[in-house]
Amino acid sequence: MNTWMDIVRELEDAAAHPRQAVLRAMRETGRNAVGCFPIYAPEEIVYAAGLLPVGMWGGPTRGRMADKYLQTFCCSVMRANTEQALRDDYNMLSAVILTTFCDTLKCVSENWKSAAPQLGLIPMVYPQNRKSASGKQFLREELMRVSDELERVTGCRATSESLEESVDVYDDWRAAMQEFTALLPNHPRVFDAKRRHLILKSVFFMDKKTHAERIKYVSAQLRRLSAESEPRKRVILSGLLCEPVEILDIITENGMQVVADDLAQESRQFRTVAPRAGDALNRMVTRIALQDGCTFLYDESKSRGAMLVDMVRREKADGVIFCQLKFCDPDEFDYPILKEELAAARIPLLHIEIEQQMDSPEQIRTRVQSFAEMLG
Ligand code: SF4
Predict the structure, then answer these.
(1) How far apart are CA 191 and CA 184, in angstroms?
(2) DSSP string covering 212-276, please?
(3) By CB neighbour count within 10 A (0-12 exposed, 13-18 middle, 19+ buried), where does 351 fall?
(4) Nearest in space to 208 (alpha carbons), one of 51, 18, 75
(5) For 291, which of 34, 281, 285, 373 is 20 to 30 Å away at the CA?
(6) In whole angstroms, how far apart are CA 93 and each of 23, 78, 219, 291, 316?
């Protein structure tokens, strides 16, 4: 019988060893794997086709092979993904879905046709006006096109029934994650910044249903525990991701806990659940229409700063750490606006520039240390 801490370690291990986790999930579920680039790849369609969606979030991979396809000023996530594709690390994938939110992703969608033709790349476009009727119709048709492409590449097809089931699985998982992350701030010693991140990331390499079961079990155990009394400074992370994990250790070492996040790799995956109205495609389209405060989804009201201010107040946070992935243009455009809005609300903000393949996070250590002292 596994204890809840065994499950926590299993989830951490999946995030720390993604390839092994994916191969294990393929064995256990009998599903072939499909790579999903960040962010908003329509995983529900992949899952409905009887396939296993796998997150492609770069990593510490270094090398020079990607230089042939990407300039040195492309973000480290795409450089790592391309290097891994060229090293054939993705040989367990039957297809790859790539959404084209930024210039780098658009380049990758073309370059991978020659860099990794064996991976069956399926590009997908999101509409700029995702809330209008015509934008919603466009997205619906794009989702159907991706489904057809997926069938062409893998031979596996999502039916309307399997898609309904799949959207239910995903919404159930999203609800479970919302509940789980709401419990974590009471347990900062057990769920420090790194463990929180690894558990949230682990889903990209596991079967969604299995992950939801594990998370619900851990949540049930956590509800029985009393809150830890160790006071820590409460911070919120914003950005695409917060890696390498040494940065999270530095946050913990400086007496802070992550009480919530606005990271594309973490809570943005599950913070919005669409109402149960219409068919499965309608629920997918509506979820994207409702998801606000995300740099990748066009938002003329630029609501991310206001959303962060609300989040800080709701979570009683002491400050925000903005994790700027080097060369990620969409986040760079958002930062000056939200910086002003947080300053107007007198919310302390730390901006750190990160790369997944950083040699040393020591410079970041000094900045995090000063921020912690300022909060203290
Ligand atoms: S620049 Fe940003 S949005 Fe574009 S691929 Fe890199 S991380 Fe993603």
Answers:
(1) 6
(2) HHHHHHHHHHHHHSPPP----EEEEEEES---STHHHHHHHHTTEEEEEEEETTTGGGTS----S
(3) middle
(4) 51
(5) 34
(6) 10, 17, 32, 29, 42
Q: How far is CA 17 from CA 24, 46, 85, 197, 269, in A?
A: 11, 22, 17, 14, 21
What gap in Å lies between CA 82 and CA 302, rounded to an integer? 31
Please choose, from the candidates 91, 364, 129, 121, the residue with its C-alpha nearest in 3D space to the C-alpha of residue 248: 364
Taking Cα atoms as reference points, which of 131, 187, 160 lies closest to residue 281? 160
- To which residue do tokens 């409460």 refer? 234
Report the atom number in ligand 1 closest to the C-alpha of 103: 4
Which of 57, 71, 73, 102 maximizes ligand 1 atoms within 8 Å of its Cβ, making it the mutation to test the pocket? 102
The whole-number mean pLDDT for each consecutive block of 10 residues of the chain, a chain of 376 residues, reads 90 97 98 96 98 95 88 92 94 96 91 90 96 97 98 97 98 98 96 98 98 98 92 96 96 97 98 95 98 94 96 98 96 96 98 90 94 94
- Compute the residue count for the chain: 376
Structure tokens given for 155: 């031979």
Residue 33 C-alpha to ligand 1 middle, in angstroms?
23
Round to the nearest angstrom and report the end-to-end CA distance of the chain: 43
Cα–ligand 1 centroid distance for 218 (angstroms): 33
d(CA 180, CA 174): 10
* 3-state SS, residue 97: strand
CA distance linking residue 279 with residue 7, whole number of Å: 34
104 lines ligand 1 (CB under 6 A): yes
List, in order of start, the domains of the chain with CATH numbers: 28-156 (3.40.50.11890)
Q: Show the tokens assigned to 189.
A: 């010693």
Cα angle at 126 between 121 and 132, to 5 degrees? 160
